[in-house]
Design a protein that fits this description.
about 60 residues; alpha+beta; 3-stranded antiparallel sheet; 3 strands
Length: about 60
């Protein structure tokens, strides 16, 4: 598993960092699956699961 920061996640998905945050907070991206919280200010995204999520959204 490779975890990436919000900037890299934004580049990979084509979504803004704000949209990624909104998807996290609304539950579209699931904690423990698509992202993890390292502390109050630091979130990392699971690159493999984000890429899989993107593929399923296009279908």
């Amino acid at each position: 598993m490779k975890f990436i920061d919000k900037k890299k996640a934004s580049e990979i998905t084509g979504l803004s960092e704000t949209t990624l945050k909104r998807y996290r907070l609304s539950g579209i991206l699931e904690e423990g699956v698509h992202w993890i919280r390292l502390n109050q200010k630091n979130v990392k995204y699971n690159q493999e699961m984000l890429e899989h999520w993107l593929l399923t959204q296009s279908s």
